[in-house]
Amino acid sequence: MQTIFVMVKCALGEAYKVADAALQGCEEVSEVHSISGQYDLLLKCYLPDGADIGHFVTERIQRLAGVRDTFTLIAFKAFS
């Protein structure tokens, strides 16, 4: 299982709609957090080993209504 974090910049006033759409429309999205700064949301996603991360982000996340920009981080190891 691969863990990625996707920071999402939303259209003005659309963050809550995007958060709901991400949770309801993408089974790979496990958590959505509202954040401060340049981006509005932080999505924690779990993808199957070998899944194409770029394809997932461009086809599933960037196509959600209200998404304006994304920034993807790939996690290597969880320290918990």
Q: Which terms summarize this structure?
A:
80 residues; alpha+beta; Alpha-Beta Plaits; four-stranded antiparallel β-sheet
Please, could you describe this protein's structure?
The chain has 80 residues and is an alpha+beta fold. The chain has a single domain, classed as Lrp/AsnC effector binding domain/regulation of amino acid metabolism (RAM) domain (Alpha-Beta Plaits, 2-Layer Sandwich). It contains 2 helices and 4 strands; from the N terminus they run βαββαβ. The protein has a 4-stranded antiparallel sheet with strand order 2-3-1-4, with helices on one face. The mean pLDDT is 97.
Task: Summarize the model shown.
The protein has helices spanning 15-25, 53-61; strands at residues 2-10, 29-34, 41-47, 67-75. It is an alpha+beta fold and 80 residues long.
Radius of gyration: 12 Å
Number of strand segments: 4
Mean pLDDT: 97
* Total discrete domains: 1
H and E string: EHEEHE
Q: Write out the CATH superfamily name.
A: Lrp/AsnC effector binding domain/regulation of amino acid metabolism (RAM) domain
Which range does the strand content fall in?
Answer: 35-45%
Q: What's the architecture in CATH terms?
A: 2-Layer Sandwich
CATH fold label: Alpha-Beta Plaits
Taking the alpha carbons of the first and last residues, their distance comes to: 16 Å
CATH class: Alpha Beta
In helices, the fraction of residues equals: 25-40%
Largest sheet: 4 strands, antiparallel
Q: Quickly give the structural class.
A: alpha+beta
Widest sheet, order of strands: 2-3-1-4
Low-confidence runs of at least 5 consecutive residues: none
Write down the overall geometry.
globular
- Counted by DSSP, the helix tally is 2
